[in-house]
Amino acid sequence: MFGLGFQELMIVGIVAVLLFGKRLPEVAKSLGSSYSQFRKGLNDLQSSIDYSDSYTPPKSASASSYDDYDDYDEPTAPKFEPPPSEPKVEDAPSGDIEKPVSEK
Question: Does pTM top 0.85 for this prediction?
């Protein structure tokens, strides 16, 4: 009912008792009768409107005219290409690097 949980309904009930006290049954009865009168008037209004005369369905086009029409747009953005990968350079070891024995 109106998406309210049990705790919310309890709070609404307590506030209603605090506001109206002994008059709560009278207020609830008047709200109920007002709501029923509103629904009755709305139903009378809906039944008095004849929807069949005012609505005319659109003229149907031949099926072949829709077969030739493509409703999908082509993508306009360029295709994503990842940047070329650079060769991985390994870190040089820290400290003194000695020349190979053949170069000494």
Answer: no
